[in-house]
Amino acid sequence: MGAVRQLAAFAVAAALCLGIAALSQWPTRTEPGPAVVRLSWRTEPVRVEACRTLTPEELEGVPAHMRRTEECAGDFADYELRLRVDGEGVRVDTISPSGLRADRPVYVLVDAPVEPGRHEVDVRFTALVPADVEAETPPALEWRGQMTLGADEIGLLTTTPDGTALRTVRSQR
Fold this sequence. Notes:
Elements: H1 2-24, E1 35-43, E2 47-53, H2 56-59, E3 70-76, E4 78-85, E5 88-95, E6 106-114, E7 117-128, E8 141-149, E9 153-159, E10 166-172
Parallel strand pairs: 1-9
Antiparallel strand pairs: 1-6, 2-3, 4-5, 4-7, 7-8, 9-10
C-alpha cells in the first residue's frame, strides 16, 4: 500500500505543477494605467547653526585648553518640495532629513499620476533656513519644462551626478 500512496501523491503533485504552469501562460488583459511624474533623488542635509561670541566673564572659569571664542547651537534644515503640473499645485511637502537625529541624507521619492499627454511640469526643492540664522544655504534645485508621456510611462526627474541640478529621464513601466 505504501508504494501506491506514494505514486498517487506524486501524480497529484505533478498535476498541480502542470496546472500552475498552464495557468501562468494564460493571457490577461489589463487596461493602460496613468502616466507618472516621478521625483527621485538623495541629497545631504544642511546644518543650520546660530553662533554667538562668548564674553570674557563666561570664559573666565574655563580651563585654557577648553576655551573657544564662539558657542554654536543648531540642527539640520528641513526642505520644501513644490510640484506643479499644468499650473496646478500637485504636491507641497516638507521633507526632513532621515535618521534618528535627522542628520542622515534627505530622500525625495514622489509619484504623481497624470493623464497621458503633454504636461508643463515645475519642480522646486529648497532648504528652509530661517532668515535670522547664518548658514551656507545650498541653491534651490529647480526644473521647468514639458513632459510628453504615454499611458504607463514614467517621466523621472532626478539630480545630475554632481547633485547641483535636476534632469529628466524617461522610462517605461
